[in-house]
Write a structure and sequence with these properties.
By secondary structure, the chain is an all-alpha fold. The protein has six helices and no strands. It has two domains: 67 residues, Homeodomain-like (Arc Repressor Mutant, subunit A); 71 residues. Helix content is 81%, strand content 0%.
């Protein structure tokens, strides 16, 4: 019985992860999560008090996974790749006197960090805009 309960919980987490990633947290409803996972709404509430509690459980799982060395390395590999690329471009620019004397590693970190921040901000803004649009459509 306990195994079945854990399977139900995992189904909810998996379905919520899919819905949140495709539609956004606010656009996904508590009705959709159990329907998507093939469980009852009562079973959903047995495991999670609310949609927010479910999201926090997902977040906790992601944070736990990021402590795994293999997952961590895979997660930061794109950052390292871009950092290395921009560092080499900036070094070349300094050598050619196209750029003023600057620490290429630091400048590269600032470029990549700014780009990542803008990317994350765009995801948040798009999610908020989609949620706002869907609320207007529902009215």
């Amino acid at each position: 019985m306990q195994q079945r309960s854990e399977e139900t919980r995992i189904k909810s987490l998996d379905s919520a992860g899919r819905l949140f990633s495709t539609r956004g947290f606010s656009a996904a409803s508590v009705d959709e999560i159990p329907a998507e996972s093939g469980i009852s709404k009562g079973a959903f509430y047995h495991h999670f008090e609310s949609q927010q509690a479910l999201f926090l459980a997902l977040l906790d799982g992601w944070l736990q996974a990021s402590r795994d060395k293999t997952i961590w390395e895979a997660s930061i590999a794109p950052y390292r790749r871009y950092h290395k690329y921009f560092t080499s471009l900036i070094k070349k620019g300094v050598e050619e006197c196209s750029f003023v004397e600057i620490d290429p590693g630091l400048a590269s970190r600032m470029i990549v960090s700014t780009a990542m921040g803008l990317f994350l901000q765009s995801l948040l803004v798009n999610s908020l805009l989609n949620t706002s649009k869907e609320k207007r459509i529902r009215k």
